Amino acid sequence: MARRTKLLSLLSTLKVAFQNPHNPFSKTLRVSYGTLAPSKLPEYEMPSVTWGVIQGRKEKLVSRVIIFDYLKGLGIIPDELHDLELPSTVDVMRERVEFLMKLGLTVDHINDYPLILGCSVRKNVIPVLGYLEKVGISRSKLGEFVKSYPQVLHASVIVELVPVVKFLRGLDVEKDDIGYVLQKYPELLGFKLEGTMSTSVAYLVSIGVNPRDIGPMVTQYPYFLGMRVGTVIKPMIDYLVHLGLPKKVLARMLEKRAYILGYDLEETVKPNVECLISFGVKRECLASVIAQYPQILGLPLKAKLSSQQYFFSLKLKVDPEGFARVVEKMPQVVSLHQHVIMKPVEFLLGRMLPAQDVASMVVRCPQLMALRVELMKNSYYFFKTEMGRPLNELVEFPEYFTYSLESRIKPRYQRLKSKGIRCSLNWMLNCSDQRFEERLQGHYIETESVGPTFFMGGRLDLPRNSIVSDEEEESDDEVLYRQTVSL
């Protein structure tokens, strides 16, 4: 008890001595504290020194006026800085402004986001820029990055930036792609991990997107990480499912073309679907059209369809109904340049085929319009010189030009010739190698079907024959899935 009383008495004496400004011991204590204490702390952990600590009210107001006058002299409007903690001297503010300008920011950029002047060069700007450069954003691009997302300079590297980068790596985004992703969508650095990003990924995986494909999707189109499931992603998926696209097909589409999620459902997607219908595309064909060419949902479609329909009517003599069938079979035609279309058409017209026959060939097999004329010439001369067949067979089966001359047409023709079999082009070419061998070994000639359904980006949908094949018919979903996977 006596020891405790003595200790309290000593502490009381020290307190009185320290509070006395004339006491030399008090002065010694202050000097020692002011000299030694900061050296025990790492530089980046030191508290920021502000004019509020070292200045009185009057000096504080004077400093603010001087700094504001300096900023106004540069053309910077300081109206939003009244409640912001600013440096104690104009020299420190000048250092900040000059540093930002060296990055490439102009007075206009600073006026767009004046709060950037509240960032300390040493404690905010340099650590953040150093980390961004470390994750793959080149030094020459840092200025553009700050211009597009100046809020990043307020972020804590450890608390805010590092977790986002780790999250992206966890989604299988390649290390070398991190900088590219952040430059495309800098706002990612401001998202909370447990919020929109995690929810978007979880929903896409739930509809069938392969988790291993999330990384490539983020690299291609990182913006979907910022989309809300309930108001953006799910309504889009539900609408496309309503059109007849199975979720398995949608998942494959999104894995390859995640940017589809960025199309505005009400302003773009729905009007484009209605536009297709208004131009004669059958409702039951919409799912197939979208599966073959998903980009059609985001195009300025009405203008493109109007232009192409007029062109087909004027130059190719294809009526609007025929044009609609062309779009159903090869929707990419809406974006095909007209001079590209005319090259194969002019080649066919140059073989003395009537314009109406060429029009019927285009409607039956729109892929003709995307073929290289050099390949068409080779196939045509083989047809005329070696096979010696009449032109009307090409009109009836224009798909002949879509098959490889060296790997399919020549070998099969030679096999038929050696066996003395004469058949139509459809019978010879419109089947797999296995089916062709079965036909050669058979003692009959199959009844010919109407022909294949040829979808751009997919395979030939071969007609079946119960006599020579026990294969099961594919469901509509399986056909759409195959077309999408082959895109």
UniProtKB/TrEMBL annotation:
GO terms for biological process: developmental process; DNA-templated transcription termination; RNA splicing. One of its GO terms (molecular function) is nucleic acid binding. The keyword Phosphoprotein does not apply. Signal peptide: none annotated. The keyword Plastid applies. InterPro entries: MTERF, MTERF_sf. Pfam families: mTERF. GO terms for cellular component: chloroplast. Its main location: plastid. It is found in: Plastid, Chloroplast. Keywords: Chloroplast, Plastid, Transcription, Transcription regulation, Transcription termination, Transit peptide. Belongs to the mTERF family. This is Transcription termination factor MTERF4, chloroplastic. It comes from Psophocarpus tetragonolobus (Winged bean).
